[in-house]
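Hi there,

I know you've been waiting on this one. I reran it after we fixed the sequence typo, so this is the corrected version. Both the input and the resulting structure follow.
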Amino acid sequence: MSNNVPSRKQTVLLNPLTDFTPVNSLNSSIRSSEVRKTWQLPKCIGNFAAHPIKSNSTGEIVEVEIGEAEWLLDVLELLFDFYFVQPAITKAKREALNQKLLDAGKPPMK
């Protein structure tokens, strides 16, 4: 593999002014079914933490549990991978392939 293709373990530097998609516009731009199913999870679990919700059966306030907090971290990792890491990897691979095509006298991929 070429040295200029980032691996999944390399740091991807982000510019918050240009590399940010507002949360309310995510739903229309999501193509991956896995991401689409889970992107609203932080909001749902966050509501338990921000707004006291009482259980209908016990009357006690429903707490956010450790497993749910860990799940939030998994979802955030999925979203960062989907929106930032994978596009950077794909771009680097496409650029490497286009250079190879140009060196062979072929037109680059679109």
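Quick highlight: The mean pLDDT is 77.

Best,
R. S.
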